[in-house]
Amino acid sequence: MDDLNVKATAAPHFKWLHGDMSQVPFQVYTDEALYAAEQQRIFQGPVWNFIALECEIPNAGDFKTTFAGDAPIIVVRAEDGSVKAMVNRCVHKGSLVCYKPRGTVKEFTCVYHNWTYDLSGQLTGVAFRRGVNGVGGLDPEYDIKKNRLQPLRVEIFNGLVFGTFSDKTPPFREYIGGDLCANIERVFPRKVKVLGYHSQILPNNWKLYVENNKDAYHASLLHVFHNTFGVVRPTMGGGIKLSDNGWHHLSYTVKNADSEDATGKEKVRSLQDQYKLNDVRMMEHKLEFGDFTTNAIQTVFPTLVVQQILNALAVRQLVPKGVDKSELIWTILGFEDDDADMQALRVQVNNLVGPAGLISMEDGCVGGWVQTAAKADPGAQTVMPMGGRNIEPTEGSRVTESAVRGFWKGWRELMGV
Ligand code: FES
Ligand SMILES: [Fe+2]
User: Fold this and answer.
1) Is 28 within the bounds of a domain?
2) Could you tell me if residue 210 is inside a domain?
3) pTM of the full predicted structure?
4) How far apart, in Å, do the first and last CA atoms of the chain sit?
5) pLDDT for 25-51, tens place per residue?
6) What's the 3-state SS for 8-37?
7) Which of 66, 164, 220, 379 suits 290 as a labelling partner, its CA being 20 to 30 A distant?
8) At 83, is the secondary structure helix, strand, or coil?
9) Contact (CB, 8 A) for 330 and 266
10) More confident residue, 270 or 176
């Protein structure tokens, strides 16, 4: 810890303030040593990394490959129906064992020298084990049974698959708390199905996108579509919920019951008379969860976002790709029992989100602007004083940086600074 403490406070002009999470040095977005430490202390530390949806691997042998931080991961449905996760790194010379994004296999065979693994990651075979013509072959001392792909602990919560490298990570319900679990159960009350994927490269450190999601303050300011057409306005009801430790959050917006017309569809009106949408289908909204919550953006530390924007449902998985780059993978969801109209509505509403979404494309840009400006002076700092300096839930307002401060509390606790 001490070495990191020295390193992390090496930025000139900056002092971490005890108990005050409202300031961080730009160094946190640019420092290679901190990035390397994050892999060990955060992504391979006591956190639940989102790695898959159960519905992506319904049958034995179905797999997907993904990442937990920098670590490549295979997630697979085993023969007994359980879900296994393991590091995608061959025990021989470290090649990716599996290079396909998704598929179905009976076993995994590493392409490099054809060593084989069963669905639990156990090494089962070595090519030319007995050599050729009695010459060469595997050292008899090398015990195949004692070698396997490095396993992760797996927990499935409401169809979401999480993996952790640490024995210390508490059960998921305890990890984010009952209040925040309730929103995942609310948004995914039935079996989900994947409607599609988007992936985008963000030109910024992973933490800038995490902060962006926790920063409800920017939503009605940066995203002018919101204010123009009224998806989210700062005056709408709602608030911010936080886990007890501050690490995880939920920002939600509630509309008034009287904004619902007789058909159950949202009335779309421009708040600025000069702008009109010629096609308002993507703004239609059918209430479906038995409440008036129109938007719910939830984060699970470190890098998962669970999204409800009107009827556009998604999970967003953020993958760090070096100190100044990250990949954001959107999985667009509906329910297995959606009828054709509902599925079409979800697809229309998805024009609002994703890399080119009318209310999300700006988020793919602002992180890069911060990254560009951060490089020159790693000891200068950001400041997050909106809504005070503490880390508390709020009701009736989302004009607060409380959840962002909560993220920095989690980051500092795990990083030891
Ligand atoms: S690296 Fe996998 S078999 Fe050699
Ligand atoms: Fe945003």
Assistant:
1) no
2) yes
3) 0.94
4) 8
5) 999 999 999 999 999 999 999 999 999
6) HCCCCCCCCCCCCCCEEECHHHHCHHHHHH
7) 220
8) strand
9) no
10) 176
Supply 243's token pair.
């886990």
Cα maximum dimension of the chain: 85
Count of CB atoms within 10 A of residue 182's CB?
Answer: 12
CA of 360 to the centre of ligand 2 (A): 6
CB 286 within 8 A of CB 341: no
* Whether the CB of 115 sits within 6 Å of ligand 1: yes
- Burial (CB count within 10 angstroms: exposed 0-12, middle 13-18, buried 19+), residue 256: exposed
User: Is residue 155 classed as helix, strand or coil in its secondary structure?
Assistant: strand
For a pocket test of ligand 1, which of 98, 107, 112, 126 has the largest count of ligand atoms closer than 8 A to its C-beta?
A: 112
Q: Note whether 194 and 338 are same-domain residues.
A: yes
Taking residues 245-254, what's their average pLDDT? Answer: 96
Is residue 200 domain-shared with residue 311, that is, in the same domain?
Answer: yes
Ligand 1 atom, smallest distance to 97 CA? 2
Same domain, 199 and 71: no
Question: How far apart are the CA of 330 and the centre of ligand 2, in A?
Answer: 14
Range of the domain at 115: 49-155
Residue 37 lies in a domain: no
Whether residue 401 contacts residue 217, with contact meaning beta carbons closer than 8 Å, is answered with yes
Question: With a 6 A CB cut-off, is 112 part of the ligand 1 pocket?
Answer: yes
State if residue 92 touches ligand 1 by the CB under 6 angstroms criterion.
yes
CA atoms within 13 A of residue 180's CA, in its CB half-sphere: 27
Task: Find tokens 């210390």 and name the residue.
Answer: 168
CA of 220 to the centre of ligand 2 (A): 9
* For the CA of 95, the nearest atom of ligand 1: 1
Do 192 and 260 share a domain, yes or no? yes
